[in-house]
Design goal:
It contains 11 helices and 6 strands. By secondary structure, it is α/β, with parallel strands linked by helices. Helix 1 crosses helix 5, helix 3 crosses helix 5 and helix 5 runs parallel beside helix 7. The structure holds xylulose-1,5-bisphosphate and magnesium ion (MG).
């Protein structure tokens, strides 16, 4: 069996619980600012998370719940605007300290750094959101430990498509067998497995009870494991 040489971390739900009090709130702020009577409550947002990607999520919602609005010729441009505004709101919330890393994440990253493992980020969200989260929650040494960033704007097909993980493997110059992906959601798990990468699932709030049968291992929290244990 190939030795473990890198960890690839998903962001939303994995590094931090960003969805319920981060992205969701930021989407609602953007809807309100654009005078749209749309509001995603916490329960509804769980269902909406089946669609990966904020832009795609707004489109899917508008298509099903507001087909007339969606039929407008400017709908695509308005969705782009809403999504950009949502990301600005999200970054503000992150900077204001509303989002924290999940317990045990820092410890695992520190163990990986001490063992000279490579570290990467593989996420559907945009780079600006990732940079804001890392700046608000990690010291410089920890942030600099990440050498590969595959973010949503770099791929043509988002999770569960394996494109993001395949790109990360190329940039790490490592075979899939030397890498472990860490994910919180079915979309993330399926993206990693479709790229041939082993996957540890640490379900986030919204995905507790989801089907993770394809996972190589599932744990409730990062505090339930160590790097040695994962090897
Ligand atoms: C999470 C997502 C993202 C976020 C919102 O992906 O699906 O769409 O909900 O971020 P991952 P954007 O867990 O792979 O990070 O609006 O920037 O897409
Ligand atoms: Mg995730």
């Amino acid at each position: 069996m190939c030795a473990l040489k890198a960890l690839l971390f998903d962001v939303d739900g994995t590094l931090a619980e960003t969805e319920r009090n981060g992205h969701r709130v930021a989407f609602n702020q953007a809807f309100k600012a654009q005078d749209l009577p749309w509001h995603w409550d916490t329960k509804q947002y769980g269902k909406l998370l089946e669609v990966a990607g904020g832009n795609e999520r707004i489109s899917a919602y508008a298509r099903s719940d507001h087909p007339q609005w969606m039929a407008h010729p400017d709908a695509t441009a308005r969705i782009d605007e809403l999504h950009a505004e949502k990301n600005n709101n999200y970054i503000e919330r992150v900077r204001a300290g509303h989002i924290h890393l999940r317990a045990g994440v820092v410890n695992l990253i520190q163990q990986a750094v001490a063992s000279k493992l490579k570290l990467g980020i593989v996420t559907t969200t945009y780079r600006g959101n990732v940079d804001a989260l890392l700046a608000a929650t990690m010291d410089e040494k920890l942030r600099k430990a990440f050498s590969v960033f595959v973010t949503g704007e770099r791929v043509t097909r988002k999770k569960p498509d394996p494109e993001c993980y395949e790109m990360a493997l190329r940039e790490l110059h490592l075979p899939a067998a030397a890498v472990l992906a860490i994910e919180d959601s079915p979309n993330g798990l399926h993206a990693a497995k479709a790229a041939g990468i082993r996957c540890l699932v640490v379900p986030s709030l919204y995905f507790r009870g989801a089907d993770f049968n394809a996972a190589d291992r599932t744990i409730d929290e990062f505090t339930d494991t160590t790097l040695e244990d994962l090897r």
